[in-house]
Design brief:
Blueprint: H1 5-12, E1 16-20, H2 24-37, E2 41-45, H3 48-57, E3 62-66, H4 75-84, E4 93-98, H5 103-110, E5 116-119, H6 124-149, H7 153-166, H8 170-186, H9 190-203, H10 208-221, H11 224-234, H12 241-254, H13 258-265, H14 275-287, H15 291-304, H16 309-329, H17 339-360, H18 367-383, H19 387-395, H20 408-420, H21 424-440, H22 444-460, H23 464-480, H24 484-497, H25 502-514, E6 519-520, E7 523-524, H26 525-533, H27 539-552
Parallel strand pairs: 1-2, 1-3, 3-4, 4-5
Antiparallel strand pairs: 6-7
Helix pairs in contact: 6-7, 6-8, 7-8, 8-9, 8-10, 9-10, 10-11, 11-12, 12-13, 13-14, 14-15, 14-22, 15-16, 16-17, 16-18, 17-18, 18-19, 18-20, 19-20, 20-21, 20-22, 23-24, 24-25, 25-26, 25-27, 26-27
């Protein structure tokens, strides 16, 4: 039985395939090869932008994506953008085609869990064999993927477990294990994901997707010490070296070890830094007050990507954002007699930011990019004192219409603007939307960057106490609903924001104990217990602490 009529229809109609290849001859040849295999419904695109526009109008079953796309972002960057905008769905297949066997390239591709990789030059025989395996696997996995696309993860996971127990095809079984890992991560069942990936690696230590799955699970579980040990092993392998340094730097940043994070990222050549790794390094420079180095890095990345317009635009927007940051902090760092100089620097940075935003978004038809541009421009106007223009710009484009598809950084720009124009109620409302967005964010780098932006907003508006209380209340509700992973994040934020409040520390420790987790983001449960044991607590909390001690097995 099929879960619904739509799924049954997918099995009887021709497979819908999207080819994305910038070379017209290669695109035509691939289409001809596919048509020789079967009567597929094929759409062809020369770049990711065309694919994005096509996906807004039509669904596809399988994307065959070239890695190098000429004067455009590479295939991995486009798929990541499609995932962000919810256009790449769980029930879409993904195949990468590349002639580049460099470790950095293959590593980027593997991070997206493609169904298979086709190395150029390929033969029609290899295409046919790989496609045949994919279609047989698709017949098995499609009911699961359809549930996932409908956000019905409980049924999807139940069906996966049944399949794993009954399948005799070893290759199919491994594919289902990979799918189960993705689903466990999406459901934030990190400990179960750790168990799954660890089990796979015990049988074979060469399964790269299991290595990265385990690392990501350990990172989001907050077991950063173990995460570091795993990564230290991978920095010696050429296929995983750069990515391992990126993850190690992420852990160091999370622990506020900024010099260590910068040193780790210096092991990656600037020319090899991805857009996300570049943003990570800029954050390091920002926290170390190395503004010249941050600006120089972004300018260098813009220059080296002038022929790749889409990627150049991303770097230009990052540089514009950095100029806005410099403008925000200009007066704070000014000497008492240098306010005139500080104002001149502020004006220069805002002018540079507006120029970059205008140049980067000229002719853009992407709604998300347009919103990002408008909010950054409004923020620049607000900072220069043009409150009326800033308020008018954001009122014309309310983020609540399509909040799920808006970047969290854009929402945080809106928060700053509403605080700046005096509407703290609106700002607080959007800030809470950002809290939800961060809890569902599956990019560790995006989460780190946005968390730092949230911290800046809280400090600038003296919101630490209010926000700590909100985080603790939210954590309590999540804990009662047994959403322990999210509850732990909230309790940790409350504790880190106001570490001197015993109730916050106790709630964090209680959640760690119930999850049998002895470390969370560098905080050791036993050390936290000892700190609480030295202070005076209410009788009720003394009883709670005694139960926690037993649960943790502390002597």
């Amino acid at each position: 039985m099929f879960p619904n009529a739509n799924l049954q229809e997918q099995y009887v109609r021709p497979l819908r395939i999207a080819i994305v290849e910038d070379n017209a001859t290669a695109r035509t040849n691939l289409r001809s090869h596919l048509m020789a295999i079967d009567n597929y419904d094929i759409a062809s695109y020369s770049n990711g932008k065309e694919l994005r526009n096509g996906l807004r109008l039509n669904n596809v079953d399988l994307i065959l994506m070239d890695f190098h796309l000429g004067q455009s972002k590479n295939g991995v960057e486009w798929i990541q953008q499609l995932q962000e905008s919810k256009l790449f769905k769980a029930n879409m297949g993904l195949v990468f085609i590349t002639s580049d066997g460099m470790p950095q390239t293959i590593g980027q591709i593997l991070d997206l869990y493609p169904d298979f990789i086709l190395i150029k030059p390929y033969t029609i025989k290899s295409l046919r064999l790989n496609l045949s395996h994919y279609l047989r696997l698709r017949a098995e996995t499609m009911p699961v993927l359809d549930y996932m696309a409908q956000q019905n993860d409980d049924l999807a996971l139940s069906l996966i477990n049944k399949k794993i127990q009954t399948l005799t095809n070893k290759r199919f079984k491994n594919d289902f294990l990979k799918l189960k890992g993705r689903l466990l991560m999406r459901e934030k069942q990190y400990n179960e994901a750790v168990e799954l990936y660890s089990g796979i690696l015990k049988k074979s230590s060469n399964v790269l997707w299991a290595h990265w799955g385990l690392i990501k699970s350990e990172f989001f579980t907050g077991k950063w010490h173990h995460c570091q040990k795993l990564l230290n092993h991978l920095v010696s392998e050429s296929l995983t070296k750069d990515k391992a340094y990126e993850w190690l730097a992420s852990v160091a940043l999370g622990k506020e070890e900024y010099k260590e994070a910068e040193a780790l990222l210096s092991n990656i050549k600037d020319s090899e830094l991805s857009i996300q790794a570049t943003r990570l390094k800029v954050l390091c420079y920002k926290m170390l007050d190395k503004n010249d180095q941050a600006q120089s890095l972004l300018e260098k990345k813009i220059q080296s990507n002038l022929t790749v317009k889409d990627r150049m635009i991303d770097y230009a927007m990052e540089l514009a954002r950095f100029h806005i940051h410099l403008a925000e902090s200009a007066n704070e760092k000014a000497e008492p007699n240098d306010h005139g100089k500080a104002q001149a620097e502020k004006d220069a940075n805002l002018s540079a930011a507006r120029r970059l935003i205008g140049k980067a978004n000229r002719g853009s038809s992407d709604r998300q990019a347009e919103l990002q541009k408008n909010y950054m421009l409004a923020l620049a106007y607000m900072l220069e004192g043009n409150i009326e223009k800033a308020e008018k710009m954001i009122e014309q484009a309310s983020p609540f219409q399509t909040v799920s598809n808006i970047k969290t950084t854009t929402l945080l720009d809106a928060v700053k603007i509403w605080f700046g124009v005096g509407n703290s109620e609106k700002a607080t409302e959007i800030l809470m939307e950002c809290d939800d967005a961060l809890l569902s964010q599956d990019s560790h780098i995006e989460r780190l960057i946005c968390t730092e932006l949230v911290n800046d907003i809280e400090q600038d508006n003296d919101l630490q106490k209010e926000r700590a209380l909100q985080s603790n209340d939210r954590g309590t509700k999540l804990y009662i609903n047994k959403q322990y992973a999210d509850a732990l994040v909230c309790f940790h934020k409350a504790y880190k924001t106001l570490p001197g409040v015993p109730a916050f520390a106790l709630n964090l420790l209680q959640c760690m104990a119930d999850m049998q987790q002895f470390e969370y983001q560098g905080i050791e449960a036993e050390s936290l217990y000892k700190d609480l044991a030295t202070i005076s607590l209410s009788d009720k909390n003394e009883i709670r602490l005694a139960h926690i001690k037993v649960n943790l097995g502390i002597n």
